[in-house]
Amino acid sequence: MIKIFDYSLAFLGLLFLWPVMLIVVILGYFDTGSPIFRQERVGRDQKPLR
Questions:
Q1: What is the pTM of this model?
Q2: In terms of Cα–Cα distance, which of 15, 40, 37, 16 is closest to 25?
């Protein structure tokens, strides 16, 4: 019974929040050029690392 309740609430959450997630992805794409954040750092032997 609780498992059905969990799945139904997760489905409803995704159903109602997908427009918000889509807007966040679009804003991230226009802000940084990619919806996934990447950062270059200095790795071993001073080589750049993503």
A1: 0.55
A2: 37
Question: What is the widest separation between alpha-carbon atoms in the chain?
Answer: 56
Instruction: Write down the domain spans for the chain.
Output: 2-49
For residue 5 the two structure tokens come to 């309740």
Strand partners, 49: 41
Tokens of 34: 């990619």
Task: Give CA separation, 32 vs 12, 37, 41, in Å.
Answer: 30, 8, 17
pLDDT digits (tens, 9 = 90+) for 10-48: 999 999 999 999 998 888 888 777 767 777 888 788 888
